[in-house]
Amino acid sequence: MESRPEVIRLRDEEPIATHMWVLDPGLWEELLAAHHFTVTATHLLRAPEAGSPVVMQVIQARRQAGRG
Question: Is the pTM for the entire model greater than 0.85?
């Protein structure tokens, strides 16, 4: 598994430089659970251009109690 550099732009916030991995949502949940996180929400952010197929998935997760 390799990441690629990406810049995330959320609303009126400054762009966030990050690394991105393209994985199936179920695999993300398994990987997070293996590292003691629980997925609390998943958001799909669609490109603002009409007809664009680009979708970014943002996963919110919390560290399980007693971990960390």
Answer: no
